[in-house]
Amino acid sequence: LGQTFQVTSQEATKLSLAFSRPPLPSAEDCQKLGEDVQNAILAVATVYYWLPKGQGTTLRKMVRDATTEVVEGMIQLTDAILNAPEESLSQEQLISTGGVWEACEQVSNLPRDNQAAVVSALDACLGVVKDAVEEMENALVEGQDPYGDIMEDEELGFRGNRDTYWSEADRQLLSSCMGLMKASKACLKKVLAAVKAHGKADSPEQIAQLDDLADIANEISPSVDELALSMYPPVNPLAVRLNAAKLASVLKKVLEIAKASHVCPPSEEGWVQFLSGAVDHNMNKVKNFTQGQL
C-alpha cells in the first residue's frame, strides 16, 4: 500500500508539473500522463481490495478512508488542471497537488493491524466525549447563563425569559446526567487501556471481538451529544430521562462486550463492575428526579 501511495504521489507531481508552464503537453503526452495516473490509482484500489475482510472491519475502514482520500485528491487535481486558464499555474492546482501529497503521506500513519486500528478508533471517541463533558461542565458552573455566548435579541431586548436558565430542580437532575457523561469518559479510558494492554489480532475471534468493541464504542459519542443537547434549558425532564436511558444502555453494552472479550482478563473485571454500578446509580437518580413527570 505504501508503495502504491508513493507512486500516486509521484504521478500527481508529474501531472502538475506538465501543466505548470508553457508549452502544454502534446495530445500524445497527455494520453501517456493520463494512463500513468489511471494505473497508479487502479494499483491503490487493487491493494485496498486485497486486504482480507477477516483482518478486521475497523482496520479495513481506515484503509478504505485513506484510499478514498487519495482517489478523490487525484480527481480534484485533474479537475483543477482541466478548468484552469491555459498556460497558467492556478492556485487551485497548487493546493490540489499538495492535497494529493498529504493524502499519500497518510499511509505511514495507518494502523498495521486491527488492534492498532481499534486503539485509534477508541482514542478518537474518547477525545470527542472529553470535549462534550468539558463543555457541559463549563455551562453548568453555578449561576452561569448557559446562553451567555449568544447575543441578546435586539427586538426583544434583555433575555429575561425563564426558559434560558436552569432551576434548582433542573440542576439536581443534570448533576446525575453529568455523572453518566463522566462514566462514559471513564468507560472509554478503561476500555482503551485494556485494548492497549491485552488486545490481540492473532485469531479471527480476537479480531471480531475488537471490531465489536469499536462498533459499540462508536455509539457512545452520539449518545452523549444527544443527552447534552437535551440538558440545555428549557429542560424537558422526560426527554432528558429518555436520552440518559439510551446512553446508560450503550454503556452497559460496552462493559458487557468488554467483559466477554479477550481484552478483559480477571485482573480487569474490577473496573467493569465498578463502572456498571456507577451507570446504574446515576440512571436510578435520573429516574427518581423524573418520576413525577411520568
From TrEMBL:
It is found in: Cytoplasm; Nucleus. Keywords: Cell cycle, Cytoplasm, Nucleus. Residues 1-140 form the Cyclin-D1-binding protein 1-like N-terminal domain. Transmembrane segments: none annotated. Residues 152-256 form the Cyclin-D1-binding protein 1-like C-terminal domain. Signal peptide: none annotated. Pfam families: GCIP_C, GCIP_N. It comes from the Eukaryota. One of its GO terms (cellular component) is nucleus. Belongs to the CCNDBP1 family. PANTHER family: CYCLIN D1-BINDING PROTEIN 1, CYCLIN-D1-BINDING PROTEIN 1. This is CCDB1 protein. It comes from Aegithalos caudatus (Long-tailed tit).
